[in-house]
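Appendix C reproduces, verbatim, an entry submitted by the partner laboratory led by Prof. M.T., so that reviewers can inspect both the input and the predicted structure.
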Amino acid sequence: MRIWVDADACPNVIKDILFKAAKRVQVPLILIANQPIATPPSRWISARRVSRGFDVADNEILRQLTPGDLVITADIPLAADVIRQGGHALNPRGELYTPENIRARLNMRDFMETLRASGVATGGPAALSPAERQAFANQLDRFLRHNAPSFTQEEN
């Protein structure tokens, strides 16, 4: 199992949680971005830079994904593709996308896109709250407890 991060838009506080978890559980964490991403020194953490362009990072994640991998993304179409390929997707606010909920998320995304295209100002997402950071950390921990072969509660 590997953890892939759609890193261009991933908040730094979420990356920090992921860095600690990857070291603790000893699971490869790979950040994919079209810009340089700083990572702490660890054999478990790496970053790959891809060229700029529409869905280039998403396509790289999907190309490398194997069933059972976890992808951290707020990109709902990417999450849907991950699920279709047998992976798992978790957004930075702590919601685990599933085959049962991804269709509703796609429909809402498409609806909001239609509103924006018609000129309705929908605003962007709110800043990540402390409760959402905690929800992400808790959901990640639950996922790793059930899916990472070397899960441990201790910090390495």
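The chain has a mean pLDDT of 89. Additional entries are available on request from the coordinating office.
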